[in-house]
Amino acid sequence: MKKTLALLTGGTTGEWVVSVKSAATIAQNLDADKFDVYKIMLTQQGWFYEPADSVKIEVDRNDFSLTIKGRKIMFDGVFIAIHGSPGEDGKLQGYFDMLNLPYTTCDALTSAITMNKGYTKAIVQGIENLHIAKSAQIFKNTAYSLEQIKKDLKIPYFVKPNNGGSSIGMSKVTHGADLQSAIDKAFKEDTQLLIEEFISGREFTVGVVKLDGKITVLPATEVETAKEFFDFEAKYTPGVATETTPAPIRPETKARVEQIAKDVYLKLNCSGVVRIDFILTEDEGDFYFIEINTIPGQTATSFIPQQVAAAGMKLNDFYTKLVKETIG
User: Which of 36, 62, 142, 153 is 20 to 30 A from 1, alpha carbon to alpha carbon?
Assistant: First the structure.
């Protein structure tokens, strides 16, 4: 029996452009023999299904249904491919929970918490072999002391919006005099900021997913960029960053990374596929947590499709198992 899935894309932040590309990859690789897929675009203007042959049809948000040519379509589940709000911050998950409709991502609470980098770090602190960079959290309408921050943290720092992804609004500060302007830039994106000590090392990202009832860690990717850090341009402009999957690391480091990634997945109560970014200090020493993405990109060049291929799986099978695990 075929399942009827809504593939939800778009969103209300600057990341919607990536969401549209992710949804295109997912739609292309969802098995047509197993799923009837309706791609639904969510924007500030409304939620619409856009069939190729006719005008767009608005979703009835009372029960998340579509009426097409007099026929009411209800869904078995939702494949959420929205990066940023409202797909990654728990808002949609809360809505679908109220409708009792399963979806492919982490639940509302985990999604909401992991959108906040400071709160996430507080939860994963204490996981064996996992290190956290020293940081300060500041709020827009609350007094903060630049002098105290400079006293507490060693330069250079990363200044980043506490919520959001794709490295928008993020800066690396190498001179104390530039801290205020970096804070001002980040406050344009968010009302809470994280100022963190810079950790020197190699940058990696690893996908973690529950398939066939067990947590699977995908082959890690090493990211090298000529830029100061892996920013929006490095992420989405071909040729700016070099990505190597599987990452060239020693077998014992790989085993340690996999155990830590599983522990993070469990401690944050994740479901579906997530991606954890980390830094490995010199000579594969310490593993530093950067952040977790609960709806990682699925564009043709994104890390998860690369890692799925490196694991010897076809995207088609991967998405089938993902839907089976999360939606049933």
Answer: 62
